[in-house]
Amino acid sequence: MTSSASLPDVAQLLPDLYQLVEIESPSGHAEAISRVMDVVEGWARALGAEVQLLAGGTRSFLFGEQQRPALILTHADTVWPLGTLEGMPFRVEGDRVYGPGTYDMKAGIVSAIHALRAIHASGGWPAGGLRLLLTPDEEVGSSSSRVHIEAAAREARAVLVVEPPVADSHALKTGRKGVGSFVVTLHGIASHAGNKPEEGASAIAEAARLIPAIHALARPDAGTTVSVGLIQGGSAVNVIPATCTLTIDVRVSSLAEGERVTASMHALTSSDPRVRLELSGGLNRPPFERGPQTMALYARAQALAHTLGFSLTEEVVGGGSDGNFTAPLAPTLDGLGAPGDGAHAAHEHVRLDRWPYHVALLTALLREV
Ligand SMILES: [Zn+2]
């Protein structure tokens, strides 16, 4: 990399990141999450933002006159429970800053705020305005914020998601698999395993027969993965088990594959007529397909990165984000947050030597998108 006068100083980014990380904000903890949001709201108001409080706790910040604004997506929740900081403190070691929620995605929020500050300082908002959405529940499926995300995307000329780039890289995310979760509950008949086994109908035995059938729905060549990730069943070792539950993770690269797997799940049948199957769940996030609009945005980003002195790449990833909701509605580019590694892991960190380049990239992209 070469140095550039337009790069922000890490010394200015770090205090803001510290402030957000020191407020632990696990999904579901509304009070903690709103404290993070209060800090961001203070920063946004200092830039003249109009603030909207939306149902479920999402906040929307409007910058400039709104006419098909460019939308920045952020989330305030993390996967880390309260008290995590005690064993995993915010700390700088060499080129890395560690701590819960640094990489996913509090540094992304800080990137967005610094980009907005730089744009504000250089003479005003781009035509059409900018909008930042801050949601409380991305890590648990965005059930309360999805409606706001989709409504904002329908009005947006582009959506920039400041989830982190691909781990340990300068790779943006130009597609994401759709994510689904299914639960199959098997209802059999309990009986004494020693005296009257023939009167029972084993839910576990039927589940064991079903699992290979479920796994056979995967199509690796089409990007579809299916995994029974959890099994719960039985009541005691000497009882023919009356119930068993299978929880299944599904990832798909296309909507057609999502529909195929969903239909196949509904078509599962029991080989033992005395064991009844019950199915719940479905596709939670639709696939974010790597389309021409996203690739056009990526091409702009790549050119801008080149002028900033670094080379950008792109990747389609298996994990979902709120970009999955916006990609069918507006041109979406994801992974524009802070580079680093260790999302949802103890070594979660942001790379301080690379972060300023990505802030400068986001700033440039927001100026011209
Ligand atoms: Zn995230």
Automatic annotation (TrEMBL):
<keyword id="KW-0479">Metal-binding</keyword>
<feature type="domain" description="Peptidase M20 dimerisation">
    <location>
        <begin position="174"/>
        <end position="268"/>
    </location>
</feature>
<dbReference type="InterPro" id="IPR017150">
    <property type="entry name" value="Pept_M20_glutamate_carboxypep"/>
</dbReference>
<dbReference type="InterPro" id="IPR002933">
    <property type="entry name" value="Peptidase_M20"/>
</dbReference>
<protein>
    <submittedName>
        <fullName>M20 family metallopeptidase</fullName>
    </submittedName>
</protein>
<keyword id="KW-0378">Hydrolase</keyword>
<dbReference type="Pfam" id="PF07687">
    <property type="entry name" value="M20_dimer"/>
</dbReference>
<dbReference type="InterPro" id="IPR011650">
    <property type="entry name" value="Peptidase_M20_dimer"/>
</dbReference>
<dbReference type="InterPro" id="IPR036264">
    <property type="entry name" value="Bact_exopeptidase_dim_dom"/>
</dbReference>
<dbReference type="InterPro" id="IPR050072">
    <property type="entry name" value="Peptidase_M20A"/>
</dbReference>
<dbReference type="Pfam" id="PF01546">
    <property type="entry name" value="Peptidase_M20"/>
</dbReference>
